[in-house]
Each structure stands twice: as structure tokens, then as C-alpha cells.
Amino acid sequence: MANPSSRKIRGLPLIDTDVIIRLLTGDDLEKQARARGLFKRIEAGEVIVFAPITTIADCVYVLSSPSLYKLPRAEVVGLLLPILRLRGFRMQDRRAVLKALDLFAATTLDFGDAYLAASMERLRSRTVYSFDRAFDRIKEIQRLA
User: Which one, out of 48, 77, 103, 108, has a CA that is 20 to 30 A from the CA of 140?
Assistant: First the structure.
């Protein structure tokens, strides 16, 4: 039997990182205008798009990377949240992604590890096998190596 949530996203167009980055950065004004048009349609409910977790992770990486846009963590999260909260913007594991963004902004965890920690909460798991000591700062997690 198919996962009920997979039926809700089947057939939806997917959105790539570059469209979101162009919208947020304005580093290419023509593409930003096109992205803005798309997101106005998403906001109005005319279009529904789906973003895999990799798209969100790539956005976080690109915006916060010291070799790319160098934005502070809190600013990255502040830019992404309004987009992710649009009714027509669907994504995998929304609750864990939003929690991961909170952790990303509040800790030194990269987004992938923050998503892992958020997934642990959702799955009611308290143990992670990792060499990354940043997990030690989260009291709900026991890190084993």
C-alpha cells in the first residue's frame, strides 16, 4: 500500500535549489523576477510544488557557505522559513525540517546533522552513533562512537 503522504505529492512539479537561491539573493535579476512570479503563484494557490529534503539542505549550504553567500545561520533560516511555510510549498518531513532549521540556527550543527537530530526526536530515538561532538550539546541525545 502506498504511503498516504506520497499520494499527496505524486505528480507535483519539483523545485530546484537554484530557483529558491535566485529568489532570495537577487544575484540574477531576470531569474529573480521569474522566481518571484512563480512564488507569487505558489502563494496564491495557483501552483503547488514539492521540494525534497535535498533541496532544502542545498539552500542552507549555499546561503551559509563561507565560499558562497556567507550569510549568518539565523539569516538563512529567516529567509527560508516564509517560503517553507507557504501552503503550496510541499516538502518531505515538514516537521523535522522546520525543527532542523531551528537547531541549525541555534547550534553549530550543519543542516544534515540538525536534520538527523530532528528526525531522532520524531522517531523518539535518543541515541546516535557519531564522531561529531556537536551532538553532545543537545541534552536529549546520547552520542556513541
Answer: 77
